[in-house]
């Protein structure tokens, strides 16, 4: 019996190996593959912060019986990386792990591979910093009005994020605010703009912005303003040379912009003239209290006085 089994043993071994190979090849040909997408989860806790982008999904390839894998979806294969063991800042490659659930459970012949097999993560220390707030203001108040002051409460906030990035940030901005055509004081709540997805603004994400708006004051030059003789005795007439001058007035924009000079703005006082003659007299400016006089010319004029 033994002799029969051992006769032509090399040929028999080769035959058995070939039979096994053919059996396996046949079974492999019966297997089907399927590629699905699985949401990648980050598990565990660390005091560090991840500073690079973590893929939202990974590719999962299933190899198994066609009937078995037909109903398996991305929800049936949980993919995750565990960051619990990383507490020193640096760059690491963390393997992607899988858990079968749902329709993928209890399929012993199911082969699963994932791409990529690991995820490159950069870790940095978490740092906090007090920084200022810069409101994003555009536009100008209504014509004739100025923004004279503004205030932010609070004026500083705490921001938290990666140590290497926090050090480079000096302020945060607010959402845009257009103050065009405003003509009175106002106060609004403005939301702060987070400088990036890796940062956290501590405390309230809103600040109170207050603005003080006042009428604008400008200076305006007026030329060809008539010079008028005043307090002259009725028995005389006066001729003034030059008979016009220039004056610069300062006042509210709304009042001065459309102001038209009137007689009496520049005057020459002739009260002391008692007889005919030629006199050099000083010029006086009087805006009637509506404006301030910033300057005028001429300072003196020549007045020729004759009897009527």
Give an overview in words.
The chain has 308 residues and is mainly beta. It is 13% helix and 51% strand. The strands form 6 sheets. Strands 19-24-22-21-18-20-23 form a 7-stranded mixed beta sheet. A 5-stranded mixed beta sheet has the order 6-4-1-3-7. A hairpin with a 7-residue loop joins strand 21 and strand 22 (277-285). The termini are far apart.
Q: What order do the helices and strands come in, and which of them pair?
A:
Elements: H1 2-6, H2 9-30, E1 31-43, E2 49-50, E3 57-65, H3 66-69, E4 77-82, E5 90-95, E6 97-100, E7 111-115, E8 118-124, E9 126-134, E10 137-138, E11 145-153, E12 156-162, H4 163-166, E13 171-173, E14 177-178, E15 186-191, E16 200-201, E17 206-215, E18 217-230, E19 236-241, E20 244-252, H5 253-256, E21 266-269, E22 277-285, E23 292-297, E24 300-307
In short:
The protein has 308 residues and is mainly beta. Helices cover 13% and strands 51% of the residues.
The end-to-end distance, rounded to whole angstroms, is: 167 Å
As a percent range, the share of strand residues is: over 45%
Rg (C-alpha, Å): 46 Å
The stretches of 5 or more residues where confidence is low (pLDDT under 50) are 19-29
């Amino acid at each position: 019996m033994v002799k029969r089994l051992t006769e032509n043993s090399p040929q028999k071994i080769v035959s058995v190996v070939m039979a096994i190979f053919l059996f396996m090849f046949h079974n492999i040909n019966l297997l089907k593959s399927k590629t699905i997408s699985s949401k990648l989860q980050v598990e565990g806790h660390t005091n560090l912060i991840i500073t690079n982008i973590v893929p939202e999904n990974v590719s999962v390839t299933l190899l198994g019986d066609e009937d078995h894998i037909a109903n398996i979806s991305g929800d049936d294969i949980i993919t995750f990386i565990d960051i619990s063991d990383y507490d020193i800042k640096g760059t690491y490659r963390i393997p992607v792990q899988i858990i079968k659930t749902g329709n993928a459970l209890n399929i012993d012949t199911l082969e699963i591979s994932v791409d990529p097999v690991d995820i490159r993560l950069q870790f940095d220390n978490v740092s906090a910093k007090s920084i200022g707030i810069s409101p994003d203001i555009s536009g100008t108040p209504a014509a004739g009005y100025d923004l004279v002051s503004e205030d932010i409460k609070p004026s500083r906030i705490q921001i938290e994020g990666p140590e290497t990035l926090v050090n480079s940030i000096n302020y945060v901005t607010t959402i845009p605010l257009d103050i065009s055509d405003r003509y009175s004081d106002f106060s609004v709540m403005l939301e702060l703009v987070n400088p990036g997805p890796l940062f956290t603004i501590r405390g309230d994400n809103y600040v109170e912005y207050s603005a003080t708006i006042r009428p604008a004051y400008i200076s305006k030059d007026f030329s060809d303003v008539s010079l008028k003789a005043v307090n002259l005795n009725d028995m005389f007439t006066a001729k003034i040379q030059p008979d016009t001058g220039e004056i610069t007035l300062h006042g509210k924009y709304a009042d001065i912009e459309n102001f038209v000079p009137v007689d009496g703005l520049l005057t020459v006082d002739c009260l002391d003239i008692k007889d005919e003659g030629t006199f050099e007299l000083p010029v006086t400016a009087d805006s009637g209290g509506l404006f301030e006089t910033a300057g005028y010319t001429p300072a003196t004029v020549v007045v020729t006085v004759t009897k009527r």
